[in-house]
Structure formats: structure tokens, C-alpha cells
Design goal:
With 708 residues, the protein is an alpha+beta fold. It is built from 27 helices and 13 strands. Strand 7 and strand 8 form a beta hairpin. About 15% of the residues have low confidence.
Length: 708
């Protein structure tokens, strides 16, 4: 029978199972009802489109039928959405035919004044009838009518001035990963719902973005690329956090670059242009191209940096405080990195970009100084006895509030302070930054949020595929720029760092929840010695809740010096071991033992086929043995290695071979992560002038889709 406590637990378990079954049944019924309603809506729209094709039906008949079907109904709410309404209007115009479509469009445009639900249908009908100018004018008026109310005061600026050390990433201990969107639920039985006003605000915001896209597409069909670029520039400046708008601008810039002949594709686009898609005039295209150049122009950010640096230098208090913060950060990095009497005592290999080194210094240390300086600007000296510092009393806040600061620089400083994001940004294909159409869509491994980030071409050129750059993304005039210096991580190290930061985030959330009397879902435990494939998973999972992501961004910003120091320590150990043994870096990494702080002994073997070295026969790596005998640099060696490797049982794949993992849904993410690491190593080999393995051939042999 068991004890009374056991019986209570069994009873609760039965009740929970019963509740779960009931919930699933309710969800199934709701889904069936929703699908039935959707089919009914589609059937009604089909009937109206068919009526438009009936030559006996007049334009007035069509308008009245549509008005009757949409008046106060769910169908009215559907077609009042900009994109859906426009598509329905074009569909009706197409069914009506070229002769009757203009009359239908005119009737709908007139009726829309008294029936707002028909407004976007009228836009589509005008476009379908060839009245593109009238469609653009009406769409512009409708877009202005759905502007959201002024936004609520934004979340306080990220102030990562206090270092947040990840929970001992150097130890392969179990880690805790927060759920994709951590919810701070009240301790009571009921959760507070959003006020109706907040839901209406969200709806208006979504409708606004939808309207912007419809208007942009209509402008492009008119060949007015400069107007479309100006529209998106203004909207992205107003709301830099809206990734969808950023993506639209990247798409537009790509088209502008193609039409301008910057990629040699103008003729193809002209051939594809139909009568309803006009090629822009030379003057319009030149104006649009200036928008593209503005997007890649980092001079506004550089002017702001120069002005803030001068502002700090003119204030002895701020100057001394910033210097102290930078010195502490640099000392901590050097200690964690184990900088000592090695071959290059001051050089750091994990930094991307940065300022010119001081006489006798190194580019690596100059990069750390630049990163630490810009991070310090987000806060400032806190008066004794105070724990929190208002934005306006921090460095950037003081600069923005100074009457002597030019208005455009003050606005840029406020944008930096308000919107800056710290993350571990995965760059899938850095070569895209070298194209005339800019804007790399990067994903933060920690929060799974995305940005269209502009990285200087000279920095992007040094990045292999699937690199991860850790640091700040800064919006200036609606364009997200990478900061002066970033931490450069390979895919394996980035996955480990992500696990450590998520563990730290979980601890922070738990502390805040406890202080506020809130509860958190029980976290899942992970083994940090075998990290999750965050670089793959970030593309599949939903982004964190924005509020939780904002807090997590602070944690990442406060942990940057630890990432620099630990990654630098691993790299220096590797370089020293290579110099001492003369072995390739891949073999040395595979042999690293207890002194491997980030667990890099798990990374893949070398991918390069080095013509100057003997066959790689020793030091087996955990992910598989190195290249098999054969003429180094030959296709025979690559084929032999590929054929044996794909059938080896690998610990990184749960004991499966790559071929078996490709067929196992539970291991495909890890296999994809492994292949991306190989691609990263292949790019490094190619950059060094070595012959790299053909990873596309490896993917083909495994049946894994190619990337890019």
C-alpha cells in the first residue's frame, strides 16, 4: 500500500495525467475548429473571386458582396490586414480581367472610405488593374493611419560594468540551461493577463510592419527604389530592434546592388521584369545606391566614438574612472590568459578588429582596451552609497545631455545607450559582407535573437564560416554596427561559452525570482563537457522573451573579459605546444588534456591536406581518426579519409558513426554541428594556403543538405 505520503504523490500524479489528457483534447478540438473556420474563410474568398470573373456582375455588385461578407465578421478582420487584403484585391482584379478591373478598382477605392475593412483590398485591386501610382498613394495614407502609439519607456541601458563570471566554464561539471523563454510566474495560482491596451498596441505594430512591406513592394513595382530605400531607412531608424524591417532592407539593398550592376546581374533582372515591374531610371537608381552606401558607412559611429572620447578626456573624474575600468579589465584578461614569457608576450589572437596599438604595445591588447573602453561608457562612476546609476549620469548619458553636444551626436549616443545588445553572434557566411549588398543576418547563440549586422569588410574577410564574434551590436541611425573590437570564437568554443553563459543566466534569474517572490520552471541539467549544439539549435528554437533577453545581454556583456581571457589562454597553450612539438594545430588540440580550460580536446582533427607534412597517423581525436595514408594534398587522401570517417563510431555522436547519425533524428543536430566545425577548419586551412577537405562532398556522402 505504501505510506500516506506515497499515496498522496500517486494521487497527484494521476490527477496531473488526467489534466494533461483533458488539455490535449481541448487543444485538439480548438485546432479542428480553427482549421474549419479557415476553410470557411477561404471558401468565401473563392466565391467572391469567382463572382469577379462573372461578366454579368457589375463592380457595384462585387463591392456589395464583399462589404456584406466582411461587415463585422472575422473575414473583415482578415482582409483588413495589409498583405492579405492586398492579395485578395489583386486576385479579384485578375479574375475580372483587364477590361473590367479598372472599374472594380475605382468602386472599391470609393467604398473603402466608408468601409475601412475594404481599404487594403482596394489597394490590391488598383495594383492589379495597373493603377500602381494610385495604389502607392492609397497605401501610403493607410500606412500612416496604423502608426502605433508612442512606445513605453525602453528598458534601461545595458550596463555590463561589473564582471559576471560564468560558472566555471573550465570544469566539465553539469550545467543548467534555461528554457527558451524563461517566464517569471507569480507564486499564486493565477497569472496576470496583459491589459487589452497592450494587445491592441501589439496588433497595431504588426499591422504597421505589414503595411510597410506592402508599400515597399508597390514602390519597387513602380521602379521607385530610392523611395523604398528612404521608407525603410526611416522606419529602421525609428525601430532598430525590428528584425523583419532590417531583413526587408537587406533584401532591398541586394536588389539595388544587382540593378546597379555591382554584381553583374542587371541584365538578368531586366529580362525577368514584367510589365508590372519597372526597371528604375538611372537617376532613381543612383539615389537608391546612395542609400546602400550610407548603410555601410561607419563614419557616423566613428565620429560618435571620437566625440565621446574627447568628452571623457576633458573631464578628469570620468577619465580617471574609465582608465581604472580598462586597466582592471586588461589585468583580468591577462591573468586568465596566462600571459607570460611566451613567444609573443603581449599579442592576443582571439580579438577581431580594434584600434592601432600604442608604441611598444600589440594590436591584441589595443583591441581589449577598445572593447573595455566602450563597455565602460555604458555606465559611469557610481556615487558612494548608491547601487544603481541612472542612464543620464553615465558616460554616454552625460555626453547626450551636454548642451555642447551636437543634436545628431546626442541622438546617436542615446540610441547606443538604449538599444545596445551584447551577444555571441554567429556569422554563417562572412563572405556575404564582402558583397556590394551589405547586412549580415547574425544570430546570438545565447538568446537566439537576430540582427542585420554590418561588419567591416576587412574584419569579415578574416572570418571562416560559422565563426562567432562576441561583443556589442550598436544601432546608429537605424543601422546595426559591430563594435570596434570583438572576441573571435570557433564553433566548438562558442558552444561551450554559450552553455556557461546560460548556466550563469539561470543562476541570476533564480536569484531575482527568489527576491521577488516568484517561481521559475525547474531547469534541465546539461553536461558542460559535452555541450549542446547551440550553433545549430539557435536557428530552430524560438528567441527568448525580449525582457529575459535584455537581462541575458547584460550578463554576456559583463562576461566578455572572461571569454577573452579563457579563449586566449587556450589559444596560447595551443600555439606554444605547436611551436614545441612542430605538430599541426589540429593534432595538438586533440592531445590537450587536463590543461584544456574550455574542453577543446573535443574538437575535430585537422582538415587541411598539407603537402609539406607526412601522412597524419597518430593522436586520434575524439571525433574520429585523422587523415589516412595517401599522398598529402591528393584527392585520394581526402577520399580515403572521408570513406573511413563517416563509418567510425564517435563519442561526440553518442557512439554512432556519422552515417548512422545522419539517419537518426536525435543526432542530426550534433552531426550538423560537427560538419560546421569541419567547414570552419576548412576555411582556416584555405586561408593558410593549404588544401582543405571538400566538406560539400562529405555532406553529399552523408545525405546532409549543404549550407549557404
Amino acid at each position: 500500500m505504501g505510506s500516506k505520503a506515497d499515496r498522496r504523490r500517486q494521487k497527484r500524479a494521476r490527477e496531473q495525467r488526467s489534466e494533461t489528457r483533458q488539455t490535449r483534447k481541448q487543444l485538439d478540438r480548438a485546432l479542428e475548429e480553427l482549421e474549419g473556420l479557415y476553410r470557411q474563410l477561404e471558401a468565401t474568398l473563392d466565391e467572391i473571386a469567382e463572382l469577379a470573373g462573372d461578366e454579368d456582375a457589375t463592380a457595384t455588385d462585387l463591392v456589395e458582396a464583399l462589404r456584406s461578407a466582411t461587415d463585422g465578421s472575422l473575414l473583415g478582420a482578415v482582409v483588413s490586414q495589409p498583405r492579405r487584403g492586398t492579395l485578395q484585391g489583386e486576385r479579384m482584379a485578375e479574375a475580372a480581367g483587364a477590361n473590367r478591373a479598372p472599374a472594380l478598382a475605382a468602386a472599391l477605392a470609393t467604398a473603402a472610405a466608408g468601409t475601412p475593412a475594404l481599404s487594403w483590398v482596394a489597394v490590391g485591386a488598383l495594383a492589379g488593374a495597373g493603377e500602381l501610382r494610385a495604389a502607392v498613394e492609397l497605401a501610403g495614407k493607410l500606412r500612416a493611419a496604423v502608426e502605433p502609439e508612442p512606445a513605453v519607456e525602453p528598458t534601461r541601458a545595458v550596463e555590463p560594468t561589473r564582471a559576471v563570471e560564468p560558472t566555471r566554464a573550465v570544469e566539465p561539471t553539469p550545467t543548467v540551461e534555461p528554457t527558451p523563454a524563461v517566464e517569471l510566474a507569480p507564486a499564486g495560482p493565477e497569472e496576470e493577463e496583459l491589459p487589452d491596451g497592450d494587445e491592441e498596441q501589439v496588433s497595431r505594430g504588426e499591422k504597421r510592419v505589414d503595411a510597410i512591406e506592402v508599400l515597399m513592394d508597390l514602390q519597387l513595382r513602380l521602379g521607385e527604389h530610392a523611395a523604398a530605400a528612404a521608407l525603410l531607412d526611416a522606419e529602421c531608424t525609428r525601430d532598430p530592434d525590428d528584425l523583419y524591417l532590417q531583413r526587408l532592407r537587406v533584401r532591398l539593398h541586394s536588389r539595388i546592388a544587382n540593378l546597379a550592376g555591382l554584381r553583374g546581374e542587371r541584365e538578368r533582372i531586366e529580362e525577368e521584369a514584367s510589365e508590372s515591374w519597372r526597371v528604375p531610371t538611372a537617376a532613381d537608381l543612383e539615389a537608391a545606391r546612395r542609400s546602400l552606401e550610407r548603410y555601410t558607412d561607419r563614419s557616423p559611429l566613428e565620429r560618435l566614438r571620437t566625440a565621446v572620447a574627447a568628452f571623457v578626456a576633458a573631464d578628469p573624474e570620468l577619465s580617471a574612472w574609465v582608465e581604472g575600468e580598462v586597466a582592471d579589465c586588461l589585468a583580468e584578461v591577462r591573468e586568465l590568459a596566462g600571459l607570460g614569457p611566451l613567444e609573443h608576450p603581449g599579442e592576443m589572437t582571439t580579438m577581431l578588429g580594434g584600434a592601432a596599438p600604442e608604441p611598444g604595445g600589440s594590436a591584441g591588447e589595443a583591441s581589449v582596451v577598445a572593447m573595455a573602453t566602450e563597455r565602460a561608457w555604458l555606465s559611469g562612476p557610481t556615487p558612494e552609497g548608491e547601487e544603481d546609476l541612472p542612464d543620464e549620469r553615465g558616460v554616454l548619458g552625460r555626453f547626450a545631455a551636454d548642451p555642447a553636444t551636437p543634436p545628431e551626436l546626442a541622438e546617436a549616443a542615446r540610441s547606443w545607450l538604449t538599444h545596445v545588445r551584447f551577444g555571441l553572434w554567429q556569422v554563417a557566411d562572412p563572405s556575404e559582407a564582402l558583397q556590394p549588398a551589405p547586412g549580415l543576418v547574425v544570430t546570438d547563440l545565447v538568446t537566439r535573437s537576430q540582427l542585420a549586422l554590418v561588419i567591416p569588410a576587412d574584419q569579415a574577410a578574416s572570418l571562416p564560416r560559422w565563426s562567432v564574434i562576441a561583443g556589442a551590436a550598436i544601432p546608429i541611425d537605424g543601422v546595426w554596427h559591430s563594435e570596434t573590437a570583438m572576441v573571435r570564437l570557433d564553433p566548438e568554443m562558442a558552444d561551450r561559452a554559450t552553455g556557461a553563459l546560460l548556466e550563469t543566466s539561470t543562476a541570476v534569474f533564480a536569484t531575482l525570482a527568489k527576491e521577488a517572490g516568484l517561481r521559475l520552471p525547474k531547469p534541465r541539467h546539461r553536461d558542460l563537457s559535452n555541450p549542446e549544439p547551440y550553433g545549430v539549435r539557435c536557428e530552430l528554437d524560438e528567441p527568448m522573451d525580449p525582457m529575459i533577453a535584455a537581462l541575458t545581454s547584460k550578463i554576456v556583456g559583463g562576461s566578455l573579459q572572461f571569454l577573452v581571457g579563457l579563449a586566449e589562454g587556450v589559444n596560447r597553450h595551443l600555439l606554444a605546444s605547436v611551436a614545441a612539438s612542430g605538430s599541426p594545430p589540429g593534432l595538438v588540440r586533440s592531445a590537450l588534456g587536463a590543461d584544456d580550460p574550455l574542453g577543446l580536446s573535443q574538437i575535430v582533427p585537422p582538415v587541411a591536406l598539407r603537402a609539406s607534412e607526412p601522412p597524419l597517423l597518430s593522436a586520434p581525436a575524439p571525433v574520429g581518426r585523422p587523415l589516412r595514408p595517401g599522398r598529402p594534398g591528393s584527392s585520394a587522401a581526402a577520399a580515403a579519409w572521408r570513406e573511413e570517417w563517416i563509418d567510425e563510431r564517435l563519442a561526440a555522436l553518442g557512439g554512432l558513426s556519422p552515417r548512422a547519425a545522419a539517419k537518426d533524428p536525435h543526432q542530426q543536430e550534433r552531426l550538423e554541428s560537427l560538419l560546421r566545425t569541419l567547414e570552419h577548419e576548412a576555411d582556416l586551412a584555405a586561408a593558410a594556403g593549404d588544401e582543405a577537405l571538400d566538406i560539400d562532398a562529405l555532406r553529399l556522402a552523408l545525405g546532409m543538405a549543404p549550407t549557404g
